[in-house]
Amino acid sequence: MKKPSLFLALLISWGLQATLRADDSLDNVLVKYDFNFLKNDCDPNAPSYCAPCVWTTDLGLSHLDQKLLCGGSDGSQFRNFSGWDIAYDYSFARADFSPAPGVLSYDLFVRPDAIANISGVSFDWLRPDCNSVDSIQATIFWLSTGGGIEYLSTGPITLDGFGSWNSRVLEFPIDVNPLPTGIDTSGKQFHVEIYAWGAAGGPLYLDNVALLGNCAPIPEPGGALLIATAGIALLLRRRLRN
Fold first, then answer.
1. Which run of H or of E encompasses 12?
2. Taking Cα atoms as reference points, which of 110, 213, 232, 116 lies closest to residue 170?
3. Can you tell me the distance from the alpha carbon of 160 to that of 135, in angstroms, rounded to the nearest whole number?
4. pLDDT at 191 over 50
5. Strands (E), 111-203
6. Residue 107, beta-bridge partner list
7. 69-92: buried (b, 16+ CB within 10 Å) or exposed (e) per residue?
8. What is the domain extent for residue 58?
9. Please, what's the largest Cα pairwise distance for the chain?
10. How far apart (Å, rounded) are the C-alpha atoms in residues 234 and 223?
11. Is residue 2 part of a domain?
12. Looking at residue 144, which CATH number applies to its domain?
């Protein structure tokens, strides 16, 4: 019996993985908090989704208050966060990963047998009235190889208008202090903070708070060699045909 080619076997494997993917909308999401399964105001904000190669903490509050309401961007539950600053009062200086006052925060841990790439954050937002905060930023912190804490911020973004739901993606810049990528993320901890301020410091509605990126297991030597061999075989086949 003729055996299938190595390249064909890989194609079949990748096809099965694509077929088994449960939700394509989560392809580029590492962590998501959508609040739909919460019951009370005081319930912790556990992640509603976490990619298999990472794990994360709850979305915590530092000197903020929260309420659980219905009728979010997709008709589901959302959080009303209040207690924000009126004027910008945020410091990037850190001795550890403790959150600054007046922020939402969580920690992401990349598993030791995995790698990850982080690109930014996304969320659905609504300012209930003109007193609601009208500026927001996201910042990510990590430990450098020298033991110091480094950070990267999206910078301040204006939240225009009020009374209707909007979606926003904030990307971390790639030309300032680049985030660790690939093997440099294996076993690493990242700390994410979301800080809002402005207007009268009034409440901000948030839903579907997510950290964007992708992750994958570190290939075993045999698996990496298999993929490399398949690629070389495909190139040789193309050359022979030409």
1. helix 6-20
2. 213
3. 9
4. yes
5. 114-126, 135-143, 149-153, 157-158, 166-171, 189-197
6. 191
7. eeebbeeebbbbbeebbeeeebee
8. 24-234
9. 75
10. 17
11. no
12. 2.60.120.260
42 with 31: CB under 8 angstroms?
no
Q: Where are the beta strands (DSSP E) in 16-87?
A: 29-33, 49-50, 54-56, 60-62, 65-70, 77-82
Report which DSSP code applies to 52: T
Rounded CA-CA distance 49/31 in Å is 6
State pTM to two decimals.
0.81
Inform me whether the pLDDT recorded for 223 exceeds 80. Answer: no
pLDDT tens-digit map of 123-171: 999 999 999 999 999 999 999 988 899 999 999 999 999 999 999 999 9
Count of domains for the chain = 1
How many other CB atoms are there within 10 angstroms of residue 207's CB atom?
23
In this structure, is residue 241 part of a structural domain? no
Task: Please count the residues of the chain.
Answer: 242
